[in-house]
User: Which sequence fits this backbone?
């Protein structure tokens, strides 16, 4: 085999050495163990989350000798590597190589009961010389890998102290260590660890980050999707009620409802192509914060696996329930504006005698609220199920989500009307057309994924998924300025736009990564081939309704069926050259085709006798888009890496606007990124990156149609700094700041139909805040080990978001938004009480702000035509009290 | 257009700036970001342009069609709202205007003294067409056009003309009250007086625009009046009208064309108007050709002069 033929040996973790028989480490996870503290609680070992392979010291190549280094590694309670000692030395070169590698590993910390604790593990590294086959326990290259790719978790297992795992473990589990359990920082617990290989590198750019559960849980969240705010450069707002997707911003991209961000949740693609309410529409309202384990945020498009809508980047949400939270829990919440939320989750520790990993769980939530201000009541329900099953080299994961929501919308109000007291900030205009604003969403998605982990590091995945989505909205942005295009001399009946969108989707994904190829001791390379694709059947309509006459339809704007197929394929070569350089080169190509049945196409009765033709315009289009994805990472120092990346991605078109035979209708994005990553372990890790992106054709919101329209080429030049600190066992802090200069380069020229386009060349891109700051702070501490037989712990959390002023069309600017949330909680055994406050400073801010012409005063006799600022009020100060009971 | 960049936060010279600098010491990146965050280039700039109106002092009489001289004593015009559009054609294509003034005022078109009546509000950039109403505005939501207060002052009319002329040696008051508003033949909800595509109007409106001055000259409108059919002497004829004016005489005619009776209107200080008999004044109501001539003149006749300068 290639890997055996390779003569360089990276160190790999061998079998356990010198297991301490005195240890009281658990024979099985979850078993009771003694500690120096004397308590009898469920003890769980640390789990390797990510690993970096050690490299055979080049200077020792000439000796050709084998070496076996054993390290004693302290895993801190936050999962970072603490002090490392050499338990068995093989000389400075081998010792240093092993230590350098292990210091860059990360772990899920050991736990005693619900509390994360420090632990000490023994990690052996075996360095084999050239031409000497790697001995047991595995022929895989490196060490004790553990980080799994998207959606996967790490299944902890343990070896019995005193035993040495045999090499027959086909999954590549390779490192174990043991020790005596102690349970406090002074005497860390030594346990047995078994990990799994990292399957592929998802994070490639300098701005890419993985946000872990402790940070996600630090600040309070009004709803699950708000966990995204933790990611650097991300801001999400809720401007259209609980049944409409959030508005997303990511590092200078006003992604509206998802057009510029590729979202995947548990491997399921969330964006909906050619959605009538916004291209790439991505409603994450179904997310439940309790089951979000990690966010993997890829800023830019440097991974060939990133597909449609990965323009600003991609966000992958991994679902699961951590070991400490497993079991059955029921939570009831009540808060401001008569908001009630009831949720339940169940995460069995075992099924049929087989221990369940983090990925297996079920969760459900129902919510109702009167909403702040007028016309904002809403109801929603969500259910999430995920289960990993199977054993051996291939395991399977099934996931399903079901969500529905209906919410009234207050819509927008003119800023000048608010200022002069015509309408209050959180009110709605007193007309039927304004009060009839409402939205409904229904969604079901399900997927089955098979994950394969072969010998020698090869691995792969195959998945199938299906989705059903229904969306309907009635919304009025402009008041009373629309005229019917189908009925003569019919106008002024209220611009209540009705949009309907129904999408049925089926898709697949598959990839295979080869075992490492080692033509030279200092060179290791893997190749990945992959494909993903989907077919979408979309039906959409847009009408104007007269709310004062039982929603009588008085104009038809869209009536179309669309069938879209997207077939993507990629090649990805990941190469490591010496211990210092990781280079990844890939390419991705997508073929997209559309068949459009535009039933209102060619409909022009006002200019041609309507008995001279039949309405309808059926057409088809196909295009191919391809581009490279490259990244380079230089590990200049053990605690610092230098990264650079370049990639080209795309966004598919709104199919309805395609002409017959149009061949290259895609928005192309070219993205470059460079920066530094510093990692000083738990005290501080920091990313600093600068980036440049250019889009061939951007889109922005058009109030007249209530949807996105083309705005032309754009450019973004920006920088992001993101820091995470865990200075103590009880404190975690995350902060990020993103600055961007977003410029509109080539707006569409004025036309007879639109003589005053809202944009001009060279202006700052509307709706994009140049500066986004986010701070998350969480502290938790155990006050009493035994309070009436149960431990008592408390926690505090703070989340702060700042958006700078945003440019709007027609020389308007929205003010800066500054939001502070805070929470406090107490946990006493199985009971958890939390009190959260949102918008602590009661800032009156606009969740979204636009600038366009409207007429919201239908009785004054005068119709204004110049653009005016319109706002959708954000949530004022609110609170929520929650009680959770673990059964 | 450099002026379109506005640094909203005026850091740099203020005490706040000084304090912030101290706070930001050692954090230049933060400072850089915060400073730049306030400076946004939105491509266009909000602008308010003073709007003035003026009339034209008439020298002598206005000679109408048929060489009837009129001594104009009053020519009040209800003017507004006014909309300036970026495209070459106003009307429905001007859904989003560059500048607008939503008020209306009564303009004494005989008074050449300029008067600022308000502010045109909008954004900078090219304007290439205009449209306005004459005190009576229409809205998509309204079944009928709505007279604004300026029109109310004129009796819910757009234009009031009062003049004098001499008929058969006798001075006769002439009065017209003209309504110009949306009808079934016009576009819904769009100002009725519009620049045509062939007319030239072009201005790149800047932030420092001094003002727009709109000057009306009523004489061309009034000159379109043709009073002769009302004032020219007539005579009884077979199958002719039942009454005719022959100078100051109001003659009643028989079917055979003979004069049945004649009344001298001048005895009571009146004049004889064809079809109306003895009247105190010549009223041009909506049934008259003169009224239609005036209405047409206001709609499509001589345009006001738009001057991009402050009113003198």
Assistant:
């Amino acid at each position: 085999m290639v890997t055996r033929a390779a003569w360089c040996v990276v160190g790999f973790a061998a079998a356990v050495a010198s297991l301490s028989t005195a240890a009281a480490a658990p024979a099985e996870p979850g078993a009771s163990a003694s500690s120096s503290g004397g308590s009898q609680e469920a003890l769980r070992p640390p789990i390797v989350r990510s690993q970096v392979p050690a490299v055979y010291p080049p200077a020792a190549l000439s000796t050709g000798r084998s070496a076996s280094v054993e390290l004693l590694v302290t895993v801190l309670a936050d999962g970072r590597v603490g002090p490392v000692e050499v338990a068995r030395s093989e000389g400075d070169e081998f010792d240093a190589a092993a230590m350098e590698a292990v210091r860059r590993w990360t772990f899920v910390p050991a736990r005693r009961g619900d509390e994360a604790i420090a632990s000490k593990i023994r990690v052996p590294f075996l360095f084999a010389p050239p031409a000497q086959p790697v001995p047991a326990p595995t022929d895989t290259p490196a060490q004790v890998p553990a980080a799994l790719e998207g959606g996967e978790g790490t299944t902890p297992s343990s070896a019995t102290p005193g035993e040495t795992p045999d090499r027959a473990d086909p999954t590549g589990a390779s490192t174990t260590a043991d020790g005596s359990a102690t349970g406090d920082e002074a005497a860390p617990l030594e346990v047995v660890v078994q990990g799994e290989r990292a399957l592929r590198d998802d994070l490639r750019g300098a701005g890419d980050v993985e946000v872990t559960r402790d940070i996600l849980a630090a600040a309070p969240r009004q709803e699950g999707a708000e966990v995204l705010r933790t990611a650097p450069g991300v801001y999400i707002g809720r401007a259209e009620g609980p049944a409409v997707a959030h508005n997303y911003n990511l590092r200078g991209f006003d992604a509206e409802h998802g057009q510029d961000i590729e979202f995947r949740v548990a491997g399921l693609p969330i964006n909906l192509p050619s959605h009538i309410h916004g291209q790439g529409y991505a409603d994450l309202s179904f997310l439940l914060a309790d089951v979000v384990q990690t966010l993997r945020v890829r800023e830019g498009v440097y991974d060939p696996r990133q597909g449609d809508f990965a323009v600003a980047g991609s966000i992958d949400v991994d679902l699961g329930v951590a070991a400490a939270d497993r079991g059955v829990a029921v939570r009831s919440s009540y808060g401001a504006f008569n908001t009630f939320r009831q949720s339940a989750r169940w995460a069995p520790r075992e099924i049929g005698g087989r221990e369940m990993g983090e990925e297996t769980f079920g969760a459900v939530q129902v919510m109702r609220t009167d909403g702040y201000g007028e016309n904002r009541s809403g109801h929603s329900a969500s259910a999430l199920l995920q289960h990993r099953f199977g054993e051996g080299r291939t395991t399977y994961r099934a996931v399903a989500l079901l969500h529905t929501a209906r919410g009234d919308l207050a819509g927008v109000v003119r800023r000048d009307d608010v200022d002069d007291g015509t309408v209050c900030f959180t009110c709605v205009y007193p007309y039927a057309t304004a009060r009839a604003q409402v939205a409904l969403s229904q969604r079901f998605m399900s997927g089955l994924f098979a994950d394969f982990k072969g010998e020698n590091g090869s691995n792969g995945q195959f998945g199938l998924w299906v989705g059903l989505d229904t969306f309907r909205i009635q919304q009025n942005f402009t008041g009373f300025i629309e005229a019917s295009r189908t009925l003569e001399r019919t106008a002024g009946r209220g611009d209540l736009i009705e949009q309907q969108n129904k999408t049925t989707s089926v898709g697949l994904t598959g990839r295979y990564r080869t075992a490492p190829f080692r033509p030279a001791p200092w060179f290791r390379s893997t190749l990945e081939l992959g494909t993903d694709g989907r077919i979408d059947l979309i039906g959409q309509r847009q009408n104007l309704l007269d709310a004062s006459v039982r929603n009588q339809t008085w104009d038809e704007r869209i009536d179309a069926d669309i069938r879209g197929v997207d077939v993507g394929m990629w090649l990805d070569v990941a190469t490591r050259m010496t211990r210092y350089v990781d280079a990844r080169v890939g390419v991705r190509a997508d073929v997209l085709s559309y068949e459009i049945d535009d039933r209102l196409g060619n409909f022009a009765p006002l200019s041609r006798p309507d008995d001279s033709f039949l309405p309808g315009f059926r057409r088809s289009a196909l295009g191919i888009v391809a581009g490279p994805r490259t990244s380079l990472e230089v590990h200049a120092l053990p605690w610092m890496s230098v990264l650079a990346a370049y990639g080209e991605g795309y966004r598919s078109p709104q199919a309805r606007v395609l002409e017959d035979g149009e061949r290259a209708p895609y928005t192309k994005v070219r993205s470059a990124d460079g920066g530094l990553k510093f990692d000083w372990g738990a005290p501080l890790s920091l990313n600093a990156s600068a980036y440049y992106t250019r889009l061939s054709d951007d889109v922005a919101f058009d109030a007249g149609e209530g949807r996105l329209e083309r705005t032309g080429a754009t450019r973004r030049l920006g920088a992001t700094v993101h820091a995470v600190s865990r200075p103590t066992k009880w404190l975690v802090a995350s902060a990020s700041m993103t600055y961007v200069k977003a410029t509109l380069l080539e707006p569409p020229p004025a036309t007879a139909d639109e003589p005053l386009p809202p944009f001009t060349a060279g202006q700052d891109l509307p709706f994009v805040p140049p500066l986004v700051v986010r701070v998350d702070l969480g502290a938790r501490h155990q006050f009493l080990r035994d309070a009436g037989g149960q431990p008592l712990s408390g926690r505090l959390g703070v989340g702060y978001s700042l958006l700078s002023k945003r440019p709007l069309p027609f020389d308007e600017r929205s003010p800066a938004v500054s939001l502070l949330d805070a929470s406090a909680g107490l946990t006493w055994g199985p009971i958890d009480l939390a009190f959260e406050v949102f918008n602590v400073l009661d800032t009156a801010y606009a969740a979204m702000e636009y600038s366009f012409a409207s007429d919201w005063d239908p009785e004054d006799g005068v119709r204004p035509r110049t653009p005016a600022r319109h706002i959708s009020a954000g949530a004022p100060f609110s609170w929520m009290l929650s009680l959770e009971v673990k059964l | 257009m450099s002026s379109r960049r506005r640094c909203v936060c005026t850091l740099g010279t203020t005490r706040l700036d000084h304090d912030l600098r101290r706070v930001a010491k050692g954090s230049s990146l933060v400072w850089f970001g915060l400073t730049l965050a306030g400076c946004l280039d939105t491509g266009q700039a909000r602008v308010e342009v003073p709007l003035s109106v003026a009339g034209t002092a008439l020298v002598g009489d206005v000679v109408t069609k048929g060489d009837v001289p009129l001594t104009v004593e009053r020519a009040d015009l209800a003017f507004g709202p006014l909309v300036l559009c970026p495209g070459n054609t106003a009307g429905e294509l001007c859904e989003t205007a560059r500048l607008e003034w939503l008020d209306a005022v009564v303009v004494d078109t005989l008074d050449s003294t300029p008067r600022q009546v308000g502010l045109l509000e909008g954004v900078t950039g090219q304007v290439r067409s205009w449209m306005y109403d004459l005190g009576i505005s229409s809205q998509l939501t309204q079944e009928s056009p709505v007279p604004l207060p300026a029109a109310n002052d004129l009796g819910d009319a757009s234009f009031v003309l009062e003049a004098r002329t001499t008929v058969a040696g006798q001075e006769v008051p002439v009065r017209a009250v003209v309504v110009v508003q949306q009808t079934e033949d016009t576009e819904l909800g769009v100002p009725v007086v519009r620049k045509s595509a062939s007319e030239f109007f072009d201005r790149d409106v800047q932030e420092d625009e001094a003002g727009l001055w709109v000057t009306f000259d009523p004489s061309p409108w009034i000159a379109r009046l043709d009073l002769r059919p009302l004032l020219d002497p007539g005579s009884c004829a077979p199958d002719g009208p039942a009454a005719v004016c022959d100078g100051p005489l109001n003659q009643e005619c028989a079917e055979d064309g003979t004069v049945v009776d004649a009344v001298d209107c001048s005895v009571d200080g009146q004049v004889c108007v064809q079809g109306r008999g003895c009247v105190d004044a010549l009223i041009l109501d909506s049934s008259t050709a003169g009224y239609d001539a005036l209405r047409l003149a206001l709609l499509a006749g001589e345009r006001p002069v738009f001057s991009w300068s402050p009113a003198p």
Remarks:
- Chain B has a mean pLDDT of 85.
- DSSP finds six helices and 25 strands in chain B.
- Helices of chain B lie at 15-23, 28-37, 149-153, 219-223, 228-231, 289-300.
